[in-house]
Amino acid sequence: MPESIGQLGELSVLNIDRNRLSILTNRIGECKSIRVLSLRENVLKEIPASIGDCSNLHVINVSGNQLDWLPDTLLKLDVKAVWLSENQAQPLIKFQHETLVGAGGPKRVLTCFLLPQRAPQYNPNQTQPIADSGPPPNFEKQTKIGFEDEPEEDEEDKAEGTNIPFDRDNQFRVTPNPGTLEERKRANQERAKEIQEQLKKMDSRDNIGKSIKHSLFYLM
C-alpha cells in the first residue's frame, strides 16, 4: 500500500480484500474520515497502532489474515464491529489485554479466542488466498454488518428445488427469443378462443335441455 494513502483525508470506506497485502502502512491513521476498513484475506501479521487515530472508524474486517494480536489503541475508538473470522458469531467480541516483551520493550496488545489466526492456505492455480481461520463451521451464525459476499439459500428455496442444475434445453428456464414469445402468445389466444366456443356450445346444450324439461313438465 502506498504511503500516499495518508493524504486521503476524506476517504470514508476502504476495501482492499484479497490483495496479498503483507504490511499496512502507519499512515493509515491519517485517514481521519474512514468509517469502514476491510482487509479480509490478505497476509497481514500486524495492524499498526496508528489505527487508533482513525477517530471515525466503526467497522473493521481483518478475517483471513495471520494476526497474532490487535493493537490496544483500538479501544480508543467507538468500534461497532471487528471481524476476525468468517464464522464469527457476533460482530464484536470481548478482548483481553496482554503484554508482549520484545526488542522494542513491553507492548500492550489485545487478544481473544480467535487470535492468533491460522495462516491462509494458497492454491498455486489461483490468485486469491483461501482463509482457514476461526471456530468450526457449526458455530452459531448471525447476520453480519456489511462484507457479506452472497446471501445464503432460504430453506423454502431448497425445498422448491432452486438448487437444481440449470437445464439449457428447458424452454421454461431459457430466455426465449421475442419471435418465439409472439408465436406462443398467438397460440395461447387461439387456444383461448377454442375454449370459449366450447363453453358456449355447452351452455346452449344446457339451455336446450332445460327447455325440453320445462315442456315435458307442462305436457304432463
Question: Describe it for me?
Answer:
- The protein has 220 residues and is α/β, with parallel strands linked by helices.
- The protein has a domain at 1-152: Leucine-rich repeat, LRR (right-handed beta-alpha superhelix).
- The protein is built from two helices and seven strands; from the N terminus they run E-E-E-E-E-E-E-H-H.
- It has helices at 155-159, 178-219, and strands at residues 13-15, 36-38, 59-61, 70-71, 81-83, 96-102, 105-111.
- Strands 1-2-3-5 form a four-stranded parallel beta sheet, with no helix packed on it. Strands 4-7-6 form a three-stranded antiparallel beta sheet, with no helix packed on it.
Keywords:
Leucine-rich repeat, LRR (right-handed beta-alpha superhelix); 21% helix; 220 residues; alpha/beta; 3-stranded antiparallel beta sheet
Structural class determined from secondary elements: alpha/beta
Helix and strand element order: EEEEEEEHH
What is the CATH C-level name of the domain at 1-152?
Answer: Alpha Beta
Low-confidence parts? 128-146, 157-162, 166-175
Q: Roughly what is the average pLDDT, rounded to an integer?
A: 77
What proportion of the residues form beta strands (DSSP E)?
5-15%
The biggest beta sheet reads:
4 strands, parallel
Radius of gyration from the CA trace?
33 Å
Q: What is the percent of helical residues?
A: 10-25%
Q: If helices are DSSP runs of H or I spanning 4 or more residues, what is the number of helices?
A: 2
Secondary-structure topology with pairs:
Elements: E1 13-15, E2 36-38, E3 59-61, E4 70-71, E5 81-83, E6 96-102, E7 105-111, H1 155-159, H2 178-219
Parallel strand pairs: 1-2, 2-3, 3-5
Antiparallel strand pairs: 4-7, 6-7
